[in-house]
Design brief:
With 412 residues, this protein is an alpha+beta fold. 22% of the residues lie in helices and 17% in strands. The chain has 10 helices and 18 strands. The strands form 8 sheets. It has a 3-stranded antiparallel sheet with strand order 1-8-7, with no helix packed on it.
């Protein structure tokens, strides 16, 4: 009861506080990488600039002795329609992991950015010579443990010998103080798709080279703002951070109401982007599984967030009518290239083909709007179609009007 009152007071304080600003800078993907971003990489006509000479900060007495230098790199900024440089950083690496830096390659007159990623030191990664299947694994998780936890969904891979699919089952990840969970990810490396296995990383505040202090607090705050604007690509990380630091997020405002619904990490990247884009873009078609009852439980975002998101370029899967599944997007891309190496998702013929993914008769004459009346207490009810796949599994994913962190069951 005491915890509930604390959260209630924080929510009330947040409701009367000034709206947050959203001034951001690019995040080095060696500090935290976007899940799913490397499957359909950015491709542009303009050649990237040469890498500048970076001056590494000197390691002082407040530096962690395990920190290593991760060089900076160029990204394409679609908002500015130009390249932007992400500065290098010192970072304490995940235990047992090695950094593969990002790079640009040229294919068919286009420059393609291959994202950087962490991979195990003691084993090589398998490369799939065909596009991976990204459809969701239909699964029925058991009830969560008593410890605070999040559900990491399963995923599909292809068996290279027989060409058959096999699924990697999902799991409950118990949240521990000194480690965070990074889900599995597929990354295109110029020759094929690399399956990067899941691994445990350091908590965010311990990844910085400079040991805990006032400077880290500022860096952490700016980092979380930047990640939040692309929340679906950092879904598991951000919701895990929310579970660990609910007061921080409640005071910030603009926390999606569904972060308080158990099982929301089961949303696919497409489902998350569609829901997030609808939430932050008034008038955008809602996901097909959002009905009036659910829309009435989702508190609207802040004006500052809406204004910021209006200037944001949508990811490749977000269309004018909603969001396309990555499997469909890859299928269109594959049908408009000569061979596996010609991977140019931003070419004009692919953009034209993407229009074919739009439903023939979209039923969105009057899109719904998020109309929750209370910031984080609109949690009554027991209907969430995507999670409630079977009647007897619904309790594993849904609140029944009670304010509890993800995965924490009431003591019986």
């Amino acid at each position: 009861m005491r915890r509930f009152i604390t959260y209630l007071l924080l929510a009330m304080l947040m409701a009367f506080s000034a709206e947050p600003s959203f001034s951001v800078t690019p995040v080095h993907e060696g500090l935290i990488g976007a899940i799913g971003e490397g499957i359909v990489p950015a491709s542009v006509r303009e050649r990237p600039p040469g890498l500048p000479r970076e001056l590494r900060p000197e390691k002082g007495s407040d530096f962690d002795e395990n920190a290593i230098w991760l060089s900076g790199y160029w990204i394409w900024d679609p908002e500015k329609n130009s390249y932007a440089f992400v500065k290098g950083i010192y970072r304490v690496p995940p235990p047992g992991m090695k950094w593969q830096p990002p790079r640009w390659i040229e294919r068919g007159g286009y420059w393609i950015r291959l994202k950087g990623y962490w991979h195990p030191i003691d084993r090589s990664l398998a490369r799939l010579q065909q596009t991976p299947s990204l459809c969701k694994v239909e699964e029925k998780p058991t009830d969560s443990p008593l410890s605070p936890c999040l559900y990491a969904p399963g995923f599909w891979v292809r068996d290279l010998q027989g060409g058959l699919k096999r699924s990697i089952p999902g799991r409950w990840v118990v949240l521990e103080k000194d480690r965070t969970y990074t889900p599995a990810d597929f990354v295109f490396d110029g020759e094929g798709f690399i399956l990067v296995p899941p691994y445990f990383d350091l908590p965010l505040e311990k990844r910085f080279a400079v040991k805990a202090g006032e400077g880290n607090s500022t860096n952490l705050d700016a980092l979380l703002v930047e990640l939040f604007l692309s929340y679906p690509d950092y879904q598991f990380f951000l919701q895990e951070h929310f579970v660990r630091n609910p007061a921080y997020w409640l005071l910030k405002g603009s926390v999606p109401s569904w972060w308080l619904w158990k099982g929301s990490t089961l949303l696919s990247r497409t489902e998350s982007w569609w829901l997030f884009w609808w939430w932050t873009h008034p008038g955008f078609p809602q996901p097909e599984w959002i009905n009036p009852e659910l829309a009435a439980k989702i508190y609207p975002p802040s004006t500052a967030l809406v204004e910021t998101m209006q200037r944001k370029t949508p990811p490749s899967i977000v269309m004018s009518w909603g969001a396309a599944e990555l499997d469909d997007l890859l299928r269109v891309i594959n049908s408009h290239r000569h061979n596996f190496i010609n991977f140019i998702p931003d070419s004009e013929d692919v953009k034209i083909a993407l229009a074919g993914l739009e439903p023939e008769s979209p039923d969105q004459v009057h899109p719904l709007q998020p109309e929750g009346k209370h910031p984080y207490l609109s949690l009554t009810g027991n209907s969430w179609p995507r999670f409630n796949r079977t009647e007897d599994s619904s309790r594993a994913f849904l609140f029944s009007g009670k304010f509890l962190p993800f995965g924490v069951e009431e003591a019986r």
